[in-house]
């Protein structure tokens, strides 16, 4: 059954995103799905700039800018105010990057999730501190070049979805801007659920990944098809639902995905093989989890 | 209605009577009783508010900011390390022009660990744009929280109501709990001037280039200037409707004083006791200037009182490391351009909760009276050297 992509635009053009930014397309899709009865809580990240300098704002909804580590906490305060003022039908959405989610913001996110605060937490993950010029975060994949991992990152990407599942929140999902209907469906589903909803979006970043801006959608699709960033949902932290690829799909080798990105250019055959082994192992693990759904 | 209460619970009553709507809270000694009683009020329906049990003080202030910007009356409380932890968001609340009221129980900063009182925690925040009120009694605490909201919601700056750890926070006193109907008359429901609103969607707190930032910060200073007359007005209104007033400073028995002690917090009460005894003995040349409002610093009012004295003994329960007592420094600055000024004596005492007794106050008076000028930049009282 096809999901309709709403016609209404809740994001103005003229915002400051780089051409090919996964984050701008993601915001556009998310706001289409949620509609204008939404308050946006925006922490320090590329989107702090993308929305535009005073006196401009690109989004057509009330927006609260907040400090880097406070997406979870500021949103909790907004939600509490709306509830006590009787405005329970307004959706609160936090919007943060991987830095503000995996690293500096993880305490506030964990706190909000543990309290099962009623809000949607969106993490658009471009896999590094891009706003400050491409420094590593714990969301940076193994092997990637960043300005603080010039010899390539030695640690594996933090498993944020597993961390959120451990909080037993009602809903967590991965999303890719290359799959807009899946994207819209998931945001509409999140809106209909009470409690903490965690949306992990892969957001290609041309300057940070060293890719051409017109390749962002292709990269977003290849990440899914190679099992690097599969699309799935977790309900109540225990039920895993696989969306894309499907269980019978033979995931494509990562080589094409990796070779398109300058941040992986320095990797040799051995290293790419190591990367592939990890991707395959994680994919197998995910399949086993969905079997027990 | 008379009630026996501790300073901490007086805070809770103040927030309850002010009909705070969102209370984000985190425990820390010696403030914990504040949030415990508020939690009880919320659970029993005595206060219709959302009680957010966030996971750190940084989150306390972030949540308070979110709540205030979404249009709710936000209240919280903290102390010492907790206040220091939320320092980034303390700036955010003031720069964001949000009328949040917070109680701070003055607690000495670590290391070493101390739960006892001195003022370095709150004074470290003195440049953030928060209004600061220092209280000496439980009654004043309850009343100052209510006044705090009235001031905050007029000038759009957050207010810190400050009380000494243990000496005030944990000491029981009798207070008169105002009738909530009278408080409602004094403090109407919060109607935010600027807030997140679907009818008028705007962005708050975003990127501000050098072309605009200077004016935003200037406006905070302007609001601070406005705060002095607004606080006096709020105090007069409080007297009119609820029967009590405190002033932003209080000159106590200064009519014939050539020596004036300057105090804040509970040292004021101890000093009153000593001064009363002296006056009863016919010695009327010593008085007290209590500083209640430290930010904005009421320079004109302070100069007007102190310029009548020959000697001013400032009693600081804090240390501005590298400079001296912070209240003394601000008072000297207030006299900066005056042609004449009294001789200033800077006494520092009571750090880390060391008790400040009537004997110490008498010692301060004796030193001041027997010295033309202070022998040292800082006169340390009660220090074991």
Number of helices of chain B: 13
Number of strands of chain B: 16
Let me know the largest β-sheet of chain A: 8 strands, mixed
How confident is the prediction overall: mean pLDDT of chain B?
98
Ranges of chain A where pLDDT stays below 50 over 5 or more residues in a row are none
**How do the helices and strands follow one another from N- to C-terminus of chain B?**
EHEHEHEHHEHEHEEHEHEEHEEHEHEHE
Oligomer: heterodimer
Describe the secondary structure blueprint for this structure.
The complex is a heterodimer of chains A (293) and B (385).
Chain A: H1 22-34, E1 38-43, H2 46-50, E2 63-66, H3 71-84, E3 91-97, H4 98-103, H5 106-114, E4 119-125, H6 160-166, E5 171-175, H7 180-192, E6 196-202, H8 206-209, H9 216-225, E7 231-235, E8 239-244, H10 255-259, H11 269-291
Parallel strand pairs in A: 1-2, 1-3, 3-4, 4-6, 5-6
Antiparallel strand pairs in A: 5-7, 7-8
Chain B: E1 2-6, H1 7-17, E2 22-24, H2 32-43, E3 50-52, H3 57-69, E4 74-79, H4 80-85, H5 87-95, E5 101-106, H6 120-123, E6 131-134, H7 138-155, E7 159-164, E8 172-176, H8 180-186, E9 203-204, H9 210-242, E10 249-252, E11 259-263, H10 266-280, E12 286-291, E13 293-295, H11 299-306, E14 311-316, H12 326-334, E15 343-349, H13 358-370, E16 379-381
Parallel strand pairs in B: 2-3, 2-4, 4-5, 5-7, 6-7, 11-12, 11-14, 14-15, 15-16
Antiparallel strand pairs in B: 1-8, 6-13, 10-12
Helix pairs in contact in B: 1-2, 1-7, 3-5, 7-9, 8-9, 10-13
């Amino acid at each position: 059954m096809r999901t309709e992509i709403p016609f209404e635009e809740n994001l103005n053009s003229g915002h400051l995103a780089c051409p090919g930014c996964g984050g701008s397309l993601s915001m556009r899709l998310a706001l289409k799905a949620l509609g204008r009865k939404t308050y946006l809580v925006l922490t320090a990240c590329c989107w702090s700039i993308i929305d535009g300098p005073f006196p401009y704002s690109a989004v057509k909804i009330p927006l609260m800018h907040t400090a880097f580590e406070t997406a979870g906490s500021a949103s909790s305060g907004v939600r509490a105010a709306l509830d006590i003022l009787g405005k329970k039908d307004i959706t609160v959405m936090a919007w943060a990057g991987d830095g503000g989610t995996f690293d500096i913001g993880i305490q506030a996110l964990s706190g909000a999730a543990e309290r099962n605060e009623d809000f949607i937490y969106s993490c658009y993950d471009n896999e590094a501190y891009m706003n400050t010029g491409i420094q590593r975060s714990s969301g940076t994949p193994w092997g990637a070049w960043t300005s603080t991992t010039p010899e390539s990152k030695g640690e594996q990407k933090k498993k944020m979805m597993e961390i959120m599942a451990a909080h037993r929140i009602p809903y967590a999902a991965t999303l890719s801007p290359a799959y807009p209907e899946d994207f819209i469906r998931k945001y509409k589903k999140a809106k209909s659920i009470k409690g903490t909803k965690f949306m992990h979006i892969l957001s290609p970043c041309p300057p940070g990944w060293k890719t051409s801006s017109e390749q962002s959608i292709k990269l977003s699709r290849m990440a899914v098809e190679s099992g690097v960033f599969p699309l799935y949902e977790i309900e109540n932290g225990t039920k895993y639902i696989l969306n894309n690829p499907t269980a019978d799909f033979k995931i494509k080798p990562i080589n094409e995905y990796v070779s398109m990105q300058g941040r992986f250019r320095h990797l040799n055959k051995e290293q790419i093989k190591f990367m592939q082994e990890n991707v395959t192992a994680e994919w197998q693990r995910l399949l086993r989890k969905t079997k027990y759904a | 209605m008379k009630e026996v209460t501790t300073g901490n619970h007086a805070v809770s009553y103040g927030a309850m009577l002010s009909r705070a709507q969102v209370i984000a809270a985190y425990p820390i000694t010696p403030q914990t009783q504040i949030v415990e009683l508020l939690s009880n009020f919320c659970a029993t329906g005595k206060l219709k508010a959302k009680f957010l049990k966030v996971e750190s003080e940084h989150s306390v202030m972030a949540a308070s900011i979110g709540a205030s910007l979404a249009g709710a009356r936000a209240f919280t409380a903290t102390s010492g390390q907790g206040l220091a932890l939320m320092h980034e968001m303390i700036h955010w609340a003031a720069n964001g022009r949000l009328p949040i009221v917070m109680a701070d129980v003055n607690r000495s900063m670590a290391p070493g660990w101390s739960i006892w009182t001195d003022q370095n925690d709150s004074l470290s925040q003195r440049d953030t744009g928060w209004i600061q009120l220092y209280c000496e009694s439980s009654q004043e605490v309850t009343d100052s929280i209510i006044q705090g909201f009235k001031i905050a919601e007029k000038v759009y700056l957050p207010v810190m109501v400050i009380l000494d750890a243990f000496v005030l926070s944990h000491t029981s006193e009798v207070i008169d709990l105002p009738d909530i109907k009278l408080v409602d008359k004094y403090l109407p429901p919060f109607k935010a001037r600027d807030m997140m609103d679907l009818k008028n969607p705007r962005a708050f707190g975003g990127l501000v280039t050098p072309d605009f930032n200077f004016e935003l910060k200037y406006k905070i200073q302007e609001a601070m200037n406005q705060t002095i007359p607004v606080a006096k007005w709020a105090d007069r209104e409080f007297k009119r409707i609820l029967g009590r007033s405190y002033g932003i400073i209080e000159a106590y028995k200064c009519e014939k004083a050539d020596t004036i002690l300057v105090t804040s917090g509970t040292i004021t009460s101890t000093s009153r006791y000593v001064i009363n005894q002296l006056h009863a003995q016919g010695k009327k040349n010593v008085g007290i200037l209590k500083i209640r409002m430290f930010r904005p610093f009421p320079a004109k009012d302070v100069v007007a009182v102190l310029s009548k004295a020959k000697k001013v003994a400032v009693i600081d329960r804090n240390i501005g490391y590298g400079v001296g007592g912070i209240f003394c420094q601000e008072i000297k600055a207030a006299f900066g351009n005056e042609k004449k000024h009294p001789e200033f004596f800077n006494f520092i005492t009571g750090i880390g909760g060391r008790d400040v007794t009537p004997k110490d106050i008498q010692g301060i008076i004796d030193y001041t009276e027997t010295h033309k000028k202070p022998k040292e930049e800082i006169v340390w009282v009660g220090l074991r050297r």
